[in-house]
Amino acid sequence: MFPADSAQAMDLIRSLGAPARLQRHVELVGEAGEALLALLREQSVAVDEAFVRVGIVLHDTGKIRHPAELHGPGGEHEPAGEAMLLAAGASPELARVCVSHARWAAMDCRLEELAVALADKLWKGVRKTELEERFIDAAAAAGGHDRWNLFVALDSGFERIAADGPQRLARSAV
C-alpha cells in the first residue's frame, strides 16, 4: 500500500501542492478518526487502522485542483483526487477514498472506507444516520458482533466524537 502511513501521505499531498487549509482539515478529521479507531478497538472490531489513517489524509486531495471546494460545496474534487493519487503512484484502494468518502451511499464500501467517510462527518459535529447505520452493520460483520449490542456502544461513541466538533471547527481556520 502506498503511501504506507499517514506521514508519507502528508508528504504526498504536500508534494502535490496541498494548501495549509487542506492540511489542517485532514489533521482535524484525523483527530475524529483516532477517536473512532479507539472506539473500534474498545469493541474488539478489527480494522486496518493504517488504511483509515492514510485514507483520512488523502480523502480530499482533489481540492488541490478545485480550491473553491475548500470553502464551499462541490464534488469535482472527488474524481480529480482519485486521478491525482493514481498518477502519483498511490494504490487504487487508497485513491478510491477520494470518491468513496463522499459517494459511500452509492458504492459498495469496506469498513475502512466507511470509517474515513464517518470521520469526515463527525469531526465537525455532524451526525449522518444512514452512514452510521452502514458503518455499524459493517463493523458488526467484521467483528462477529451482535448488531444491536454494538449499536449502543458505537452510537454513544459517535455522540462523544461529534460533541467535540464545535471545538475542532474553531481550530479549523488557518
Written overview of the protein:
This protein has 10 helices and no strands. It has 174 residues and is mainly α. The chain has a single domain, classed as Hypothetical protein af1432 (Orthogonal Bundle). The termini are far apart. The longest helix is centred in the first third of the chain and has 23 residues, at 20-42.
Short description:
This protein has 174 residues and is an all-alpha fold. It has 10 helices and no strands.
Structural class: mainly alpha
pLDDT averaged residue by residue: 96
| CATH hierarchy class name | Mainly Alpha
Q: Please, how many domains?
A: 1
Series of H and E elements: HHHHHHHHHH
- End-to-end Cα distance, whole Å, is 31 Å
**CATH architectural group:** Orthogonal Bundle
| Poorly predicted residue ranges | none
Radius of gyration: 15 Å
Residue fraction in strands:
under 5%
Quaternary structure state of the chains depicted: single chain
Broad shape: globular
What are its keywords?
174 residues, mainly alpha, Hypothetical protein af1432
Blueprint (SSEs and pairs):
Elements: H1 6-15, H2 20-42, H3 49-58, H4 77-87, H5 92-95, H6 97-103, H7 111-122, H8 129-143, H9 147-163, H10 165-170
